[in-house]
C-alpha cells in the first residue's frame, strides 16, 4: 500500500469530514424544507455550477441517463426522505454504508463477478450490524426511515453497476450529467408532492439555504472532486479505506450538534457494519490495484 503524502492525507481527512458533516447539515435543512424540494434545490445548485462540463459522448448517453437517475435522483430522494423523518442521524449514516456490500452483491448477480470468503464475511457483517442497529428501541421507533435509507443505498449500488459501463467521462462531466438529468425528474416529483410556492421559498430561513449550498458545494462538488483527484494519484487501496471515516464523523457531529442519543446497540452495530464495509473495501481495492483473481 502506497503511503499518502502528508498534505494529501490531510486533504483526504478533510474530505471525509465534509462528507460526515453533510448528513447533519442536511438534517438541519430538512427541518425547514420538504425532502423532495430540498433534493431538487441541491441538484439545481450543482447543475448551475457544472453546466460548462456537459459533453455528449456518442453511444454512452442512454447508460448515463440510467446511471444518473439511479445514483442521483432516486438515491438522493430516498436518502433525504429517510433523513427527514429520522430521529437519529447516526443510524442513517451507518445504514447508508450498505451501498458497499450492495454493490458487491450486484456485481455478482449482474456482472458475474466472483466473491470469495473474505468479502462474503464483510457483506454478512455489514448487514448484521445494521440489523443490530435496527433492533435498538430508539431506531425501531422510526424504522421507515431506515428502510428508505437502505433503499437509497440499493439504488445507488445499481447506479454504480451502470457507471461501470461508462467510459470517456471525466469526473466533473459525470457530476454535471447526473445533476442535469436528475433535476427535471426531481422538480416534477417536488411539484407533485410538495407544491412549493415562490412566497414559501422567499420565506425560507437562511439555515435551509445554507444547508442546500453546503450539501451541493462542499458535500458533493468539492469533496467528490477532491476524492477523485486523490484516486488518480494513488492506488485506490491507499485512499478508499479512509472514506469509511465519514460515518464516524457523522456520528460525532450528530451527537455534538443535534444531541443524538448514542446507545450501546447503535455503537456496537455501527462497529460491526463499518468493520464489514472495511473488509469489503480493502479486499476489492486490493484486487482492483493488482488486477488479480478474486
Short description:
It is built from 14 helices and no strands.
What do you see in this structure?
- By secondary structure, the protein is an all-alpha fold.
- It has one domain.
- The protein is 78% helix and 0% strand.
- The two termini are 18 Å apart.
Structural class, by secondary structure, is: mainly alpha
The number of distinct β-strands equals 0
Shape: globular
Give the radius of gyration: 19 Å
Q: How much of the residues is beta strand, in percent? A: under 5%
Low-confidence stretches: 287-294
Mean pLDDT: 88
Helical content (DSSP H or I, runs of 4+): over 70%
- Alpha-carbon distance between the termini? 18 Å
Count of spatially separate domains: 1
- What can be said about the biggest beta sheet? none
Count of individual helical segments: 14
Note the run of SSEs as H and E: HHHHHHHHHHHHHH
Amino acid at each position: 500500500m502506497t503511503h499518502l503524502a502528508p498534505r494529501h492525507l490531510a486533504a483526504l481527512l478533510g474530505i471525509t469530514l465534509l462528507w460526515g458533516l453533510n448528513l447533519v447539515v442536511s438534517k438541519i435543512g430538512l427541518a425547514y424544507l420538504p425532502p423532495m424540494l430540498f433534493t431538487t434545490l441541491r441538484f439545481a445548485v450543482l447543475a448551475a455550477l457544472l453546466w460548462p462540463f456537459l459533453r455528449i459522448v456518442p453511444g454512452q448517453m442512454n447508460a448515463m441517463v440510467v446511471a444518473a437517475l439511479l445514483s442521483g435522483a432516486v438515491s438522493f430522494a430516498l436518502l433525504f426522505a429517510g433523513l427527514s423523518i429520522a430521529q437519529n442521524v447516526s443510524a442513517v449514516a451507518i445504514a447508508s454504508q450498505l451501498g458497499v456490500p450492495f454493490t458487491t452483491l450486484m456485481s455478482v448477480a449482474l456482472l458475474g463477478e466472483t466473491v470469495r470468503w473474505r468479502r462474503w464475511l464483510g457483506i454478512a457483517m455489514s448487514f448484521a450490524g445494521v440489523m443490530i442497529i435496527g433492533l435498538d428501541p430508539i431506531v425501531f421507533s422510526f424504522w421507515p426511515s431506515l428502510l428508505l435509507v437502505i433503499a437509497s443505498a440499493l439504488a445507488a449500488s445499481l447506479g454504480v453497476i451502470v457507471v461501470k459501463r461508462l467510459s470517456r467521462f471525466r469526473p466533473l462531466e459525470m457530476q454535471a450529467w447526473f445533476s442535469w438529468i436528475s433535476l427535471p425528474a426531481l422538480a416534477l416529483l417536488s411539484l407533485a408532492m410538495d407544491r412549493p410556492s415562490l412566497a414559501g421559498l422567499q420565506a425560507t430561513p437562511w439555515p435551509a439555504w445554507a444547508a442546500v449550498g453546503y450539501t451541493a458545494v462542499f458535500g458533493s462538488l468539492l469533496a467528490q472532486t477532491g476524492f477523485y483527484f486523490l484516486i488518480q494519484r494513488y492506488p485506490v487501496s491507499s485512499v478508499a479505506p479512509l472514506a469509511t471515516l465519514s460515518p464516524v464523523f457523522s456520528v460525532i457531529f450528530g451527537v455534538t450538534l443535534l444531541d443524538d442519543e448514542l446507545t450501546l446497540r447503535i455503537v456496537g452495530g455501527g462497529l460491526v457494519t463499518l468493520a464489514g464495509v472495511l473488509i469489503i473495501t480493502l479486499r476489492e481495492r486490493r484486487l482492483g490495484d493488482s488486477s488479480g483473481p478474486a
